[in-house]
């Protein structure tokens, strides 16, 4: 790669996402990143030589439908346009997906995705392992609400772990490019935090962002709530699971492979040691934020 850089200089660039296909010829490297070289800097001989040891990446725009091209220009070509209206649609939602392995079965995957939604969707890929689903509806009642079971089946059928991130609902007017890049950045930042979740909802990540923006001093102060149990990792993990199961003892016990009575004992122990009644809303919220703050300090 260093030899290529010495030959093509500033005519060569690296990117996770190919773009400006009219200007650059793109190749996929072994590390699944992309190398772009300005087309006017490539001779036919050089192009043939590069194609022998790098995989040429054909321009996505040559195979896009009119609808996909419209959204591709809005989201990927740095056009910060504000849309005031879009036909009969009132709401837009972006759902981002990431596939753990290198993925080539695009057509089959897109067909499977389309079957998961109650309304027509637009699918765009930003690289070989991730992309975005654009959901357009006239009313919020038309939204596809629960993807969990469908994604589990999808992972099984395509023999790959994958994650989905449901962005917020956007009403008009709004800037698609700004919303897309902001939510995509959020997804990339929380993937490891929620690595066990197949479907991540924006609402689920809000406590994480709250803790992330909190000062170290504030986190330390919150951590004092757990001072008597800070070393009891099993208890903290148990209570966190209970809270994430919406205070449902039966569901939490099932997830933890525990008997209900054993879980109830740990809940009572937590309440006794912290004086936080996690059986009610206020105590549950306080305990959950305290646990997240403790985890943040230990990272």
Automatic annotation (TrEMBL):
Residues 235-293 form the PucR C-terminal helix-turn-helix domain. Pfam families: HTH_30. Coiled coil: none annotated. SUPFAM superfamilies: Homeodomain-like (SSF46689). This is Transcriptional regulator. It comes from Priestia veravalensis.
């Amino acid at each position: 790669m260093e030899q290529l850089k010495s030959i093509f200089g500033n005519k060569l660039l690296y990117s996770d996402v190919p773009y400006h296909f009219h200007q650059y010829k793109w190749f996929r490297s072994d590390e699944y990143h992309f190398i772009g070289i300005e087309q006017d800097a490539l001779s036919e001989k050089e192009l043939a030589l590069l194609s022998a040891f790098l995989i040429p990446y054909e321009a996505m725009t040559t195979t896009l439908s009119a609808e996909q091209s419209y959204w591709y220009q809005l989201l990927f070509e740095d056009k910060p346009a504000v849309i005031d209206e879009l036909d009969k649609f009132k709401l837009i939602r972006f759902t981002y997906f990431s596939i753990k392995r290198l993925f080539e079965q695009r057509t089959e995957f897109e067909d499977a995705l389309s079957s998961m939604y109650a309304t027509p969707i637009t699918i765009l890929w930003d690289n070989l392992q991730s992309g975005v689903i654009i959901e357009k509806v006239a009313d919020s009642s038309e939204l596809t609400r629960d993807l969990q079971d469908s994604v589990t089946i999808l992972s099984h059928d395509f023999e790959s772990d994958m994650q989905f991130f449901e962005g917020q609902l956007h009403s008009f007017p709004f800037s698609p490019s700004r919303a897309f890049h902001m939510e995509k950045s959020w997804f990339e930042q929380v993937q490891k935090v929620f690595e066990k979740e197949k479907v991540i909802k924006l609402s689920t990540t809000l406590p994480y962002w709250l803790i992330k923006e909190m000062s170290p001093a504030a986190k330390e102060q919150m951590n004092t709530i757990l001072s008597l149990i800070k070393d009891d990792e099993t208890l903290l993990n148990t209570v966190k699971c209970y809270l994430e199961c919406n205070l449902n003892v039966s569901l939490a016990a099932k997830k933890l492979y525990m008997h209900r009575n054993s879980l109830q004992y740990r809940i009572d122990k937590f309440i006794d040691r912290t004086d936080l009644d996690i059986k009610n809303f206020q105590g549950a919220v306080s305990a959950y934020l305290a646990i997240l703050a403790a985890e943040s300090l230990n990272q």
